[in-house]
């Protein structure tokens, strides 16, 4: 509550936890207290909380001891109060986890990744294989089974060994107390199957897929010596129907089911299946919980009884207790697509007219253009700021100017991809379908296009300061021939073309000086890893040196801090170039794309998919 200056009070609303009012020392602003943030690898999450991640598997020891594993080595643990990241010492994607107890457990992942939990940390254990390991299950600390890409391993309490001479590709497994082991997987020629281990041989117990019928198997789980495999029957003609197979410890039988379960898990007492809309016991069928109240679909469910967690694809987990769903989300923002620094504030733009400001806390701003996307934001202070939005309803752009705590509307009759605001508040440049600068008269603001000799039909995509100069990069992507990149320099108010690297597309740039420029982009279509290669190019005033970064799809976000280069982009890791010229990579986001990088004050900032906002102290060592 705040005094409105007229003897009454304004109700300014509430902060959604874990943020609190004044959480980082700024009155009347929502922020996560410094000691409550999730931090890993030098990065701390400011929003959302806990964080977006890609869960591939989960395991519940107790309702206050829950694990989830996912892409790029992400491991999270719930201790009954909050979710925290736990290092597994790997960036390999993780696919399975099984816990014998709170102090003993296993996780598995790509390239033979195997880790053991000792109650304090995940330690490396050799699996003896480089095959992708996809699932793990056991009955006790000395009887653990792992399956994967044509590999089956068993732990006897002392060592791992290969359990079969020949194994299909298996992606789920359940080990029973009587020694039985069942799994699901696929064979290229016959499709998905349910398998049973007979001695040292895997035997298919599913009907063979035929000319007119196929099967999809989504998982297997059990309790005691009984197990259930769930999936669906896919006929050539007609609708798909549920497939539910039951194993009684000796043999298999088909059961009728009205639901097609997308996943299945056990809690030691019962087996549960879940659809996108509800969780229920498998046999007898009894609904435990419906989907969360916001209407979001269930993603990956784990738990015990009606104490459940819904670990969605990207977003904060939902928790179900005593018949009620709750979430600890902070933000709930959509994908963020741009980042800008203005004075002591950092600004983030996204979809649905979303503009966020960080100033010792997170503040939301509405620009009165519903469902628009904020494509650029820049300024010199909170009250000398510009934001450009794309309005899909009219396929046009609007440049908003923040002045005297209000947003002034300026329609823009051309495409905009980037924005520059100089120290002079009238030095505003919009880049996109051409380069335009602001012209201010006593009655109105207009935009004048800047001609660049020899440059026509260029889509300008990014701009950076280089001392008193500006550097712009782009490409002629609309060309019917092979696209080529373009670079332009503004010096003393006039633009001239510079030589460009051979990279087809340039969409990010940062500079120290006119003879020390970094431009990032990609060759190919920029969406699929198999069709695109991200590149980073350096201009020393005489020539470009281009580096194709391994694993990079399309690099568009870039920042230079203390001579070190940071860059990332579409479905790519974060690349860091030290001052000695060496590159390293990390995955601050377990899934999704990093679309914004920028330095402000004593921090490097990152923004990306699922509303992710991360901050890194500039004194932190590289990951």
Task: Please explain how this structure is put together.
Helices cover 0% and strands 55% of the residues. It has no helices and 61 strands. The strands form 16 sheets. It has a five-stranded antiparallel beta sheet, with no helix packed on it. Strands 7-8-9-10 form a four-stranded antiparallel beta sheet, with no helix packed on it. It is globular, with a radius of gyration of 28 Å. The model has no long low-confidence stretch (mean pLDDT 90).
In short:
The protein is mainly beta and 623 residues long. It is globular and about 85 Å long.
Gyration radius, rounded: 28 Å
Question: What is the makeup of the main sheet?
Answer: 5 strands, antiparallel
Low-confidence blocks of residues: none
What structural class do helix, strand and pairing data support? mainly beta
Strand content: over 45%
The coarse overall form would be globular
Q: Number of DSSP helices?
A: 0
The separation of the N and C termini measures: 42 Å
Helix content: under 10%
Average pLDDT, all residues: 90
Please give the order of strands in the largest beta sheet. 5-6-61-60-59
The count of DSSP E runs of length 2 or more, i.e. the number of strands, is 61
List the helices and strands and how they pair.
Layout: E1 2-3, E2 9-10, E3 20-21, E4 30-31, E5 39-40, E6 43-47, E7 55-62, E8 65-70, E9 75-78, E10 83-85, E11 94-101, E12 104-109, E13 114-117, E14 122-124, E15 133-140, E16 143-148, E17 152-155, E18 160-162, E19 169-175, E20 181-187, E21 191-198, E22 201-204, E23 213-223, E24 226-235, E25 241-247, E26 252-255, E27 263-266, E28 271-274, E29 278-281, E30 286-290, E31 301-304, E32 307-310, E33 318-321, E34 324-327, E35 336-342, E36 345-350, E37 355-358, E38 362-365, E39 373-381, E40 384-391, E41 396-403, E42 406-412, E43 416-421, E44 428-432, E45 434-440, E46 445-449, E47 459-466, E48 469-475, E49 485-491, E50 494-498, E51 505-513, E52 516-524, E53 532-539, E54 544-548, E55 554-561, E56 564-570, E57 574-577, E58 583-586, E59 594-600, E60 603-608, E61 613-617
Antiparallel strand pairs: 1-2, 3-4, 5-6, 6-61, 7-8, 8-9, 9-10, 11-12, 12-13, 13-14, 15-16, 16-17, 17-18, 19-20, 20-21, 21-22, 23-24, 24-25, 25-26, 27-28, 28-29, 29-30, 31-32, 32-33, 33-34, 35-36, 36-37, 37-38, 39-40, 40-41, 41-42, 43-44, 44-45, 45-46, 47-48, 48-49, 49-50, 51-52, 52-53, 53-54, ...
